[in-house]
Structures are given as structure tokens and as C-alpha cells.
User: Fold these one by one.
Assistant:
Number 1:
Amino acid sequence: MDPTPIPSSTQPPAKDSSTTHEPSKVIFVRNVPIDCSETELSSAFEVFGPTETVMTMNAKSHAFVQFVNLIDAQTCLMQVQSGKAKVMLQDRELLIS
């Protein structure tokens, strides 16, 4: 007896949310000096465009920076991650993602 073929699904495969990212105006910053103020951090990133919100997590040397415009956040990420630009604060290079 031959097995009956199983019909293929007509639905597209589900998207894997771990591999797709929506563009965001928020960047994650590491290596932030513990005594850094949110104003100092905002000023360090305003070379890429105006920032809207800065939230520091000083105990972990991390922060989130939200730009007003999506294109400014994308430009910051592309330039820093490609090595074309560095963001320095209190003699530290800030790491972003």
C-alpha cells in the first residue's frame, strides 16, 4: 500500500522575530561612564541629530538614547558600527547597537 501524499501548506512560513528588526529611533549604548549625566550623553550624540530622550542605567554603564528622527538614529548606527565615526565621552569610546 502506497502512503497518501500529504498536501503542502498554502500558508507562507511564519516570520522568525529574532531575525527581523523594525527600524527604531532608539539606540542602546554601552561603556557609559558611571558619573555621566543624561545631558552629557545627549550632547555626545547630537552630532548625528537632535535627541528626544536619554535614559541612563549608571549601575550597569548602559543607556538608551532616542533620536527625534529615525534617519538620525540609523545614520549614527551605520557610521559608528562601520568605524567611520566614534562617540567619545569622558575619554571613553561609547559602544552602540
Number 2:
Amino acid sequence: MVTREEVFDRIKSTMNELFEVDPSTVTLDTKLIDDLGLDSIDAIDLAARLEEVTQKRLTEASLRKLRTVRDVVDLISGMLEEPRDPVGGLPQTPKGS
């Protein structure tokens, strides 16, 4: 299982790769728009990378709630804790969805 610290480190690395943000300046309370200057195109790039990392689809509603790096870490940590299909390795879909 991936720890929150590992998720945070991966987010910092991703911010550096995508947006040339110095990882040492990123904290859990760093604001995506106000502190990092991300815009809507950057948000799409970040969402695509997060989907790549988690191998799960992000909902528009969950993306709209992201304000800080902590929000991103919480979202990804939660997604990585979701049960997976033991055969195919895919996230299990609750019945009735």
C-alpha cells in the first residue's frame, strides 16, 4: 500500500515535471491557483497525469474540489485505497452503479 507521504512526494515530482515547480517549495497547504499559478489548461494536464498514475478516471466533481496540494493528496490516497478486482486489477464498481 502506498503511504500519504509517498503520494505527496509523487505529487511534488509531478508538479515539477509538468509545471517546473521547485518541489522544495510545495507543501500540503500550497494553493494550486494562488501559489502555483495553475490555470484551467494546467488543471487538465494535472488531471490526465493523476489518471495515469492511479489508473482510475477522475470525476469532474472531484476535480472541481481541488484547491490545495493536500486536496490532491487526499483524493489520490483515497483512490488508491479503493478495492481492486482481484482478477483484472481494475477498481471494483459498486453494484447498482
Number 3:
Amino acid sequence: MDLFCGGGELERKKKGRSCRMKRIGIVAKRNKPEAIGVTKDLTEWLRQRKIDVYADEETGKAVAAQFPETRVKAIEPRVLAEHVEMVIVLGGDGTLL
């Protein structure tokens, strides 16, 4: 599965451009261990697809503490959106953000 933005693939090929995402951010609810586990799995899945993964500092610290072998780029939450094309939020109360 590739992560592409909207619009038809044929139209993008005609114009010679691709909308493939290269940088994705993750923010997880840190007091939910299952959210940190999903963050680890998602990070590995994205990295296998040559996608850079960023996380807010607290999520990054939680992943590093539980899964030291999983590398995620941890950055300040206030600048996360400036570094990524999409943010995935895990472990909330089910509200769509």
C-alpha cells in the first residue's frame, strides 16, 4: 500500500509529479501502553516503505524507553506539523480530530 494524496494517479503522471508522502508524524497517548506498542509497529511499517517518521518528544521518549531498537525522530510538538505531511494520532478517546 502506498500513501498518496488525492487526485487521480493518471493525472499526476501526466503532470510529472507524485504526491507520495515522505514524512509522517505520530502523536500517541503516552499513558496507554497499547498506543506506544502500535506506534512502534506503525513506525517500523512506515520505515520499511522508506517514509521518515517523526513523533512529538513525549511519544518519542516513550517508544525509546519500551522499544530501544525502534528509531523515531522526536521533535518539539509545536514544530511537528512543519516537518511532516500528515500526523497520525493514536490512543485517544475515539474522537475524530
